[in-house]
Please model this.
Amino acid sequence: MTDFAARQKGLRALRRAGWVWYVAGAAAVLVGSVLAWVRFSVFGVEFSLPGVAGWGALTASCALLSLIGGRRFPLLGVLVGLLAMGIGSRAQQETGRAVRGRVLALTQALAPVNDKLMRVGLPPIEPFPLGQRWADHVGPGPLWTFWGGAALAVGAAAAFCGERLGRTCGRCGARWSPARMVVFCPACGERAGPLIACPACQSPLEPSDHFCAVCGSAASSD
Ligand SMILES: [Zn+2]
Ligand SMILES: [Zn+2]
Model:
């Protein structure tokens, strides 16, 4: 295999892997947004709030946007991925502590009432289970959002680099527009694209052609 063919093959693999990570990451962010972000129990009844009730609505719509616009603007995936990582890690760090603080404040507000109840021999009001840690109030949603965002950002960067390097000359570094079909580098003449002449009749072929459109000969695969 020539250097040229090896480079093309490597770039194709990079682009393909990038898109797999891109789509899987965006899907994970979407899943994360409908999973529970906040969990708490009141009088023994468990409640959970999905991410879409809060910041998850933003990460979900951005993930959808990155799936729709990704083909044209792969860098959108990097932005959305970083945003999801930021929101996911912030929710992971702070949601549980915020809920814990609220629970402690309510428990404290009930203290004088419970004091009076106990003085007259009535059981105290204890809406929240005792001995919970802040981590008990965090659902799986924020972690999904964080790691989904990481996969999305990495995949988008790989897809972007693969696409850009695919239209950059391997020898002199010249770059051409995506619309241009380039077989030899316009700056230095290095081979930069697939052979496009029919081996039988020398008519031009498109890179995706399996057969010559003029004489029907099999196009030699690169
Ligand atoms: Zn060149
Ligand atoms: Zn031909």
Summary: Residues 198, 200-201, 203, 212, 214-215, 217 surround zinc ion (ligand 2) (CB under 6 Å). The chain has a mean pLDDT of 88. Strands lie at 36-42, 45-50. The chain has two domains: 3-166, 173-222.
